[in-house]
Amino acid sequence: MITFIIGGARSGKSRFALQLANNYILSKDGGRKAYIATAQSMDDEMKERIEKHKKERSDEWATFEEPLNISTLISDIHKSYDIILLDCLTLWLSNLMLNNKDVEAETRSFISSLSTIHCSLFTVSNEVGLGIVPDNALSRRFRDLSGYLNQKMAALADEVYLVTAGIPLKIK
Fold it and tell me: Which one of 32, 53, 101, 143 is the catalytic residue?
């Protein structure tokens, strides 16, 4: 089962994803849980955000910090865990862009790799396309690539939730 959670910045999507994943695993009488974090602590503010997210998870979650190679990581661990929570795709996308990776190829590889996983996957992403059109090419490219990636994830997912103002809405 693949569940996709999308929402704006500070909408409560990560907290909801964690709650949903924990409830899912409880309904299956427990299981092994992996958390893939794509964020990088490049400044004090981001370090603080990462620490906050870590405190929200119990010690039952094995944490993998992987800013770039999530397809490989998922392929490596999916048989060892009953559930994987990936947070978040938009940070992964920005990491790829900042490292001059072929984003389209990485996105295709990621999406195709999900058809072979043997565990439940919960994936979090930001909805960045609801605001104004950005004033520069890099920001517009990021917005467009995010939209493309989010569409692919939503099409593949069994369930999709939009979280806004802390309220989840099941849309698929």
Answer: 53
